[in-house]
Design a protein that fits this description.
By secondary structure, this protein is α/β, with parallel strands linked by helices. It has helices spanning about 40, 50, 75-95, 100-105, 110-135, 160-180, 200-225, 245-255, 270-275, 280-290, 315-325, 350-375, 380-385, 395-400, 405-415, 425-435, and strands spanning about 10-15, 25, 30-35, 35, 45, 95-100, 135-140, 185, 195, 230, 240, 265-270, 290-295, 335-340. The chain is globular and about 80 Å long. The two termini are about 45 Å apart. The structure holds D-xylose (XLS) and nickel (II) ion (NI) (2 copies).
Length: about 425
């Protein structure tokens, strides 16, 4: 078979001393950390929309990405060529998983039926390529935000016919995800929100969104799809306000509409920062509810206010993410999906390799550092000690529900002013730096 990334062979682990830009310095897939291999911990995925379909235009200029394999047509044949390039890319980088939207991998036809037919044809090529290259689908999803019909949203559109069309699209996307052995399915409500409340019946739209998700749960059961459902929070962009604005808002919505048992969250770093949170905040909120599912691994730029979707290269950030992931017991069947794109200036195919290799190494390093911090134990010990007053005496009585306001008021009256210990933030920050 022809090769598209001819400058590069398979990316190998050479260790921290290597100066080869096409070698891993930290990601050694068979290395065991806390009882699992790095590959099992990290479960890397590349996303089709950025890797194969993002041509790197911006609002001020056209596409720059060089994709010599792509003839620019919307034919099924061209879609299959792209698929072959993608699987060669995954294999070269040693990335086990991938993710896609229905409309990234196959063209949209003049009718839903025609789109479905073309999707089926491309999916068969994907099935063949998965076998040939030993790659797996982490999750599938449907693009319910690009076509002009979704201008007012999909499941929250003011137009019922659009809701029906979106249902048809998700039905098919679930079926092809199942066909490809997908381990999950993501709902990201790209336009499920509003631009102005002047024209919006928020309560009615939320009821519709919940009804839509209940139907998806039904269909999942009907077809025997056992993959995990995820909601991906994002506060804004493209709309001014999206209903799935952050992890807490998603959890509340899922609980209110009796959906929580069917969904986990897919947390994206740059969406967390758009919501005014750190990614580790979102991970902790999800984990506390038993709903930490998967991660869209990228990063924003603190000087820019939008979803810049940059590749994750910040070791502090990957360390904090891996601390949360390890303490939550891991991500499987979720993974680390690089929902990330190159800068417009990085337009050569080989830049895709640099970008992914760097992200993988940054996470491998984050994993090793996080495991070392956990093995050292001082951070955990400090945190535990900070709550020692709850382990016995009045604290333990409160936690067990043995006392109420009467007893507590009596306790406060009978005891001197409580003594507080320092939070030691600076000392803990220094402790983390010992390991970076
Ligand atoms: C966009 C989202 C999107 C989802 C999949 O901001 O991150 O790419 O991950 O629909
Ligand atoms: Ni995403
Ligand atoms: Ni995003």
């Amino acid at each position: 078979m022809s090769e598209y990334f001819t400058q590069v062979g398979a990316i190998r682990y050479e260790g921290p001393e290597s100066r080869d830009p096409f070698a891993f310095k930290h990601y050694n897939r068979e290395d065991v950390v806390e009882g699992k291999t790095m590959a099992e911990h990290l479960r890397f995925a590349s996303c089709y929309w950025h890797t194969m379909r993002n041509e790197l235009s911006d609002p001020f200029g056209p596409v720059t990405a060089r994709m010599p394999w792509d003839d620019g047509s919307t034919t099924v044949e061209n879609a299959k060529v792209r698929a072959r390039v993608f699987f060669e890319f995954l294999a070269k980088c040693g990335i086990d998983y991938y993710c896609f939207h229905d409309r990234d991998i196959a063209p949209e036809g003049a009718s839903l039926a025609e789109s479905d037919r073309m999707l089926d044809e491309v999916v068969e090529e994907f099935a063949r390529l998965q076998d040939e290259h030993g790659r797996k689908l982490l999750w599938g999803t449907a693009c319910l935000f690009a076509h002009p019909r979704y201008a007012h949203g999909a499941a929250t559109s003011c137009e019922a016919g659009v809701f029906a069309y979106a249902a048809g699209q998700v039905k098919k996307a679930l079926e092809v995800t199942h066909r490809l052995g997908g381990e999950g399915y993501v709902f990201w409500g790209g336009r499920e929100g509003y631009s102005t409340l002047l024209n919006t019946d928020m309560k009615r739209e939320l009821d519709h969104l919940a009804a839509f998700l209940h139907m998806a749960v039904e269909h999942k059961k009907r077809i025997g799809f056992a993959g995990q459902f995820y909601i991906e929070p994002k506060p804004k962009e493209p709309t001014k306000h999206q209903y799935d604005s952050d992890a807490a808002a998603c959890l509340n919505f899922l609980r209110e509409y009796d959906l929580l048992e069917h969904f986990k969250l897919n947390i994206e770093t740059n969406h967390a920062t758009l919501a005014g949170h750190s990614v580790e905040h979102e991970l902790e909120v999800a984990a506390a509810a038993g709903a930490l599912g998967s991660i869209d691994a990228n990063r924003g730029d603190e000087l820019l206010g939008w979803d810049t979707d940059q590749f994750p290269t910040d070791i502090y950030q990957t360390t904090k993410v891996m601390l949360s992931v390890l303490s939550a017991g891991g991500l499987a069947p979720g993974g680390l999906n690089f929902d990330a794109k190159r800068r417009r200036e990085s337009f050569e195919p080989v830049d895709l390799i640099h970008a992914h290799v760097g992200g993988m190494d940054a996470f491998a390093r984050g994993l090793k550092i996080a495991a070392a911090i956990r093995a050292d134990g001082r951070l955990e010990q400090f945190r535990k000690q900070r709550y020692a007053s709850w382990d016995s005496g009045i604290g333990a009585q409160i936690e067990s529900g043995a006392v109420g306001f009467e007893e507590l008021a009596a306790h406060a009256a009978a005891h001197p002013e409580p003594e507080l210990a320092s939070g030691r933030q600076e000392m803990l920050e220094n402790l983390i730096n010992e390991f970076i």
